[in-house]
Amino acid sequence: MINDKIKKVLLLGSGALKIGEAGEFDYSGSQALKALKEEGINSVLINPNIATVQTSEGVADRVYFLPVTPFFVEKVIAKERPDGILLSFGGQTALNCGVALYQSGVLEKYNVQVLGTPVQAIMDTEDRELFVEKLDEINVNTIKSHACNTLDEAKKAAADLGYPIIIRAAYALGGLGSGFCDNEEELEVIGNKALSFSPQILVEKSLKGWKEVEYEVVRDKYDNCITVCNMENFDPLGIHTGESIVVAPSQTLSNRDYHKLRELSIKIIRHIGIVGECNVQYAFDPNSEDYRVIEVNARLSRSSALASKATGYPLAFVAAKLGLGYGLFELKNSVTKTTSAFFEPALDYIVCKIPRWDLGKFQGVDRELGSSMKSVGEVMAIGRTFEEAIQKGLRMIGQGMHGFLENKILKVADIDKALREPTDKRIFVISKAMKAGYTVDQIHNLTKIDKWFLYKLQGIVDTDNELQQYSNVEDVPAQLLLEAKQKGFSDFQIGRALLKDEMKDVAETEILRVRAQRKKLGILPVVKQIDTLAGEFPAQTNYLYLTYNGVANDIDFPEPKADDIHTQAVIVLGSGAYRIGSSVEFDWCSVNALTTARKQGYRSVMINYNPETVSTDYDMCDRLYFDELTFERVMDIIDLERPHGVILSVGGQIPNNLAMRLDEQHVPILGTQAQYIDNAEDRQKFSSMCDRIGVVQPAWKELTNMDDVNDFIKQVGFPVLVRPSYVLSGAAMNVCSNQDELVRFLQMAANVSQKHPVVISRFIEGAKEIEMDAVADKGEIVAYAISEHVEYAGVHSGDATIQFPPQKLYYETMRRIKKVAKKIAAELHISGPFNIQFMARENDIMVIECNLRASRSFPFVSKVLKLNLIELASKIMLGVPYERPTKTEFDLDYVGIKASQFSFSRLQKADPVLGVDMSSTGEVGCLGDDVSCAILKAMLSVGLRIPSKDKGILISSGNAKQKTQLLSPCKLLAENGYKLFATGGSYRYLVENNIPCEHVYWPSEEMEPQALDLVRNKQVDLVINIPKNLTSGELSNGYKIRRAAIDFNVPLLTNDRLATAFINAFCSMDINDIAIKAWDEYK
Amino acid sequence: MQNEKAVSLILDDGHVFHGFSFGFEKPVNGEVVFNTAMMGYPESLTDPSYSGQILVMTFPLVGNYGVPAASHDANGLSSFYESEKIHARAIVVSDYSKQFCHWNGQKSLADWLKGEQIVGIEGIDTRELTKVLREKGSMKGKIVFDGGEDIEFEDPNLVNQVAIVSTHEIRKYGNGSKKVCLVDMGVKQNIIRCLLRYDVEITLVPWNYDFNHMDTEFDGLFISNGPGDPNLCGITVEHVKEFMKTGKPIYGICMGNQILSLAAGAKVIKLKYGHRGHNQPVRRYENGQPTPQCFITSQNHGFAVDNDTIPADWEPLFINMNDGSNEGIRHKSMPWFSAQFHPEASSGPTDTEFIFEQFFSLL
Known about the structure:
Chain A is an alpha/beta fold.
């Protein structure tokens, strides 16, 4: 029975995507808001993450793009006076904020009821000591843990427990600041760092090598409990669960094991008093039934999002309903629509989650995996064998891998070491080791991975070896070919196995030859439904995957009728794993394209495999294929669906890259046609087009050898931008300032430039960067949004702070941009979304690149402008009537700022410096009546704080130009009573300009006071450290200070322009002056 | 490459599924039923309730953790099995795991099947097979080896399966103060294990044994699970009716529920495809009204009590939340009650083990 006093509910989001808190909370929050809507409850959402689906029109009744911090949430509560608040749908950010509001009495003051799990229960799970006590009460084993407030206490505790031990920081996101220590020296390093994040650290006995198993548990207020899903980590304890390959359901647990842990989970959830959902993590002894509870998350989590997608059970939706007072028996299973929500899903498939890392993007980062999370995204693969699921998954992570085998040769200096000390590449090290003759036992001894998983992997190797005995696919026995497919081999892998090492890349014709041969033999995948009940009851939803382990499709594929669009499919290709450069924004785009197609009456079909997304919610479309976005799999689905058309332009670069190959197979592509996409993607073609139509680009050349490179640089001079073609987010892209750097970088990039040669272009310093997001219809621009980077060119557009509408652009510049865009749109016959990046100095504009697809900033500009550019673009691509928008950015009386979220604190040793290669993991978008207000909101939303006047600000202001840039902000700081500390050059410059400051020394200088000590002792509350240039000397010089700022959790700014904007903002207004205005109040 | 013998699973309605043998090699027939549990194959295979049946596992990966040793505990009960042998006639899976890994695994599923002369086949689209059974109902089927001997279909429900699996002799377990008579309709050993947690002495009697006239005076009667059609067990029903005259506690599990219901005067009907799995939701009823108490249960039955035939002095105790079928009854005034599901689990969830305590507290 629902509590009818609750009329208005506040939901806290999780803010920008960061490592440890990503898209899963957009999914959870969206589900909760859907549940509120269904009950007719007024919903208010606080989330500065503007690219999310949950902050879209029609999801919540009111949206505040504000930081999820007690300060701002209290203000919103005071204004909105909600009856209830939901804390468990916005990750640790929302939970921590909620606990703080409860403890400070704000919730009580405004009479806001916490819905679902009581705050006391949350605190019981978050504080380790309380947690252990609580579980001791019911005789449940936990990991013996000593809470320590100082390093000395930690050392004593470690000595008592005996090494190895693990350190954890209390109240930390996804294991932040935790680590294993084998001895006291290691404890000193890790302990100090953990203490910088949290006043308390926990020292525990390490259980490395135990199995790690999780249960997702649900409880209603009537004490009815279910475990919706259990999951087992492929990687044993020691690697954070977010870093582990995970399977669901568990595979190596017997009935006794499974139900022992299940029973404990229910005992725990009852004792703690959760109402809603929680997650229980266990360490489980591989040699007995001994166990320890690792932790309980009293909220929706990454695992619960995964469990929802793995089982089809909408945990967040159900948890929200339970929070409102329903019993599980009052809710229906949302897949069958007839059976009860009180049940435990039975799977008849296996899912495999694989993390996606982007460690290659970070200078100096520690690649070893451990107890803290570094991955930026994940994929989920579904199959009816483990081999099928894991091979699919390894292709899905999208790092050029084709599965477990038949990949580019991985160079491993010491296989034993690489097996023992896991990195992001370990699964491929296993593959290499098996090929090199390592036995399952040997690998098990080095990795402690359960032998069952290794046997299965060995089976893949065995099949590969069998395939390699043939040279022509026509000679391969049908049974072997079928078995290979059943074990998840792609046509590409089979082709390469047949051709052996003779060819580095299997020619397209060979792949098609494999495809043709297996089709001839009738070896085709079948479509199976995920129905939560293993076929026991019919399912009403179309949540689908493909498998070769089956003989029949679960659904029908009737012939589409030309006169009935309800029989015609529109397929939208999604964006795959979240990674640096492609995340929730493309999910928003995909969802909007699907919704538009659906509203027009088409059968909307989604292909995507990212469990953290809303687009993979089976309610969002008519058919969801939770499967690969490879050419092979997309063609399999197209063969079955025979679609009216395929939309490639809303899922980022992955779908875009398929354009030419799909076109060759005569697949109907909606929107801009493949040849034009290619004309934009291929630099050579694009450049000659620009020349032809009189559009200027920075001088560039595609080069394959060093002599040509040197000749070209003689013409244009340093600095130059070096990059390979066909990239997103600038993988392996770099600015080189001198010969030395150039040579070093080219050697590193040579490996990736075989197929697509290196492109070198002139790099213009001090230029403005401008973006145009637009929609065109048959070559004519229908709507556009021009936005301006705060930073000068040289900061990747994904890392840059963007203001929209532009605040400091000449009218003339805007006019020229429009003119150029018009020409390009016409020349490329654009129909649909596109984005052009410009560089401008004075009024000279140059085109940097053009993408004939939606860009990262589409949701941001759409929401600021309140004009859904994707809906418009989708209508154009579908060829249906649309209204030509009349509103433009010139009509806006407010400003939007998009700021980037970095996750350097999780990436140990990485240099937190921004460059042409993207390194942010997420973003926020905030609105304000003026730039200062918007910037302040945005910067506070990405974790900066207004520096306290009791502490100082440390300044290292870079080269001469940058020093000049920072002069007036420094003056402003001094005038506002901030104490400034500066290193050598900056100190002299400031003193010369009569700005009071104190001299501190670089780590390389043997003088006191040391800049590093200021940071470590938290005497400063902001570090501004602008690298002079990107030479290795400069980088190592400032690196220590920048890294210390990150490690000791002191806000850091490394860009002079952004620092200026931020300083101006907080010096010109007080935090209390920030207007608490909802999105709809900006008119 | 696959080098096992090719086999065909042929259903009574003409459907044929092709796969490979991994167990004992002989043609076999039976009633084809599916189970949606994701683990617990050693327990299921040794559950006497599967007597006469070809068991289809909907979860595709089977055999992962091998099979535990056939050891026994101090009471002479099997340590890890539900009876002394495999009762299912065959097991049908999608992806058999040739290698296994578990500290308690002593042999592979394949070796166990071969030793027990039980058929095991893999490479079957068990989801498609399940959907056929769901649409058409559990049906007769047979597994034949390609190029080998063919056999006839057989309906095991026409045969009294209980008589096949029930004990032939009276056995005693425990030496507690309360005397419990346990009627073996095909008892799972975990029922005995669960009862032995209390201060009881159990007398296990054959299904057709008249326990009303024994030397021991029982404090309560417990009717076990068992295979097949309860309507073939009229004699047991008569014995239970007579025991009712004592007014002492009676409890029935699974077929025990059906026997008790028949004794009460209700009817038992065959379900289209039964309930077999670990995720069956049941809701507790009181005075004909649903309570907020719900349980996830382990189930394995093809027959059910017809709710509409429950006599006036009895009432449903549990109802299946998916299809509304009966999951247990109780007498409105006497200490007689039952569960269609398996509170002893094994395999499956242990949420309803409290029922044993309830029974004991009534003794």
